[in-house]
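testing teh design pipeline on a random one, pls ignore if ur not involved
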């Protein structure tokens, strides 16, 4: 009745090592626990990285990550209001267009990387400058221009916002100058996630402008750049002008000699050898 195996299974952990290895609970090594914890943390990080909104090559587009973004937009609005009087004077001094529309090819820098995009921009004269509208697209997706202003002298700002996709909630403030003579924009961009950069090329094509003159709107759909870039074939015509040589009239001083032996006062007879005679009137 004293078998050590029968009733002592629960107490055999410290007395019988062979029974512990075969029948007792299997202990988990410390290194295995560490690996599980590390794997869980990495998995959670990758999950958040893949599903949180991203912008500008993987930076989270969470609204409010740039504390100075809203203030920068407010400063742009204040600058627009301060320049309204100047813009009105400039409009009176020089004729400005009523509408402006074009497509723009974009190249910009993002933390050392060179990327490209596209934009459609429309401007409408509101008396103090131009209201800007349009759509933009780049490596991060599509966005719509929600507000902005362009002065008559080209001072420009606008905010574009993404409303769908993984970049939903992303806002970008653009500041710079629009050159109406060359249809180019030069300036910088600033996202509400703290990422910033500058435009290396922002050139318009298919630009159309309308001007108001005496109550009527005149259209000017083609710019000088477009005219210069257009390949117009040249045609050369060769005209052959015939050359006519004039024979000078030579006056003769020789006396008149009738080609006939007829008596005076008679008509000369036809002479086959000497040709027709010369008529001599009667004297």
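output:
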């Amino acid at each position: 009745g004293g078998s050590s195996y029968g009733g002592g299974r629960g107490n055999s952990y410290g007395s019988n090592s062979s029974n512990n290895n075969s029948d007792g609970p299997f202990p988990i090594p410390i290194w295995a626990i560490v690996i599980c914890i590390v794997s869980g943390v990495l998995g959670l990080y990758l999950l958040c990285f893949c599903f949180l909104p991203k912008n500008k090559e993987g930076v989270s587009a969470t609204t409010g990550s740039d504390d100075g973004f809203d203030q920068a937009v407010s400063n742009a609005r204040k600058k627009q209001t301060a320049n309204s009087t100047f813009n009105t004077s400039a409009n009176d001094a020089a004729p400005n267009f009523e509408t402006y529309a074009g497509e723009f090819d974009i190249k910009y820098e993002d933390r050392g990387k060179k990327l490209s995009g596209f934009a459609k921009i429309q401007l409408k004269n509101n008396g103090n400058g131009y209201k800007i509208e349009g759509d933009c697209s780049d490596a991060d997706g599509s966005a719509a221009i929600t507000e902005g202003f362009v002065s008559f002298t080209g001072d420009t700002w606008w905010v574009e916002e993404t409303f769908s996709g993984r970049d939903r909630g992303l806002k970008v403030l653009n500041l710079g100058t629009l050159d109406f003579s060359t249809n180019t924009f030069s300036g910088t961009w600033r996202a509400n996630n703290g990422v910033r950069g500058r435009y290396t090329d922002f050139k318009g094509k298919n630009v159309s402008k309308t001007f108001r003159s005496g109550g009527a709107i005149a259209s000017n759909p083609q710019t000088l750049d477009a005219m210069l870039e257009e390949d117009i074939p040249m045609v050369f015509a060769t005209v052959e002008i015939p050359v006519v040589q004039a024979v000078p009239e030579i006056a003769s001083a020789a006396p008149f000699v009738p080609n006939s032996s007829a008596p005076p006062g008679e008509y000369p007879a036809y002479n086959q050898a000497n040709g027709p005679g010369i008529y001599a009137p009667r004297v």
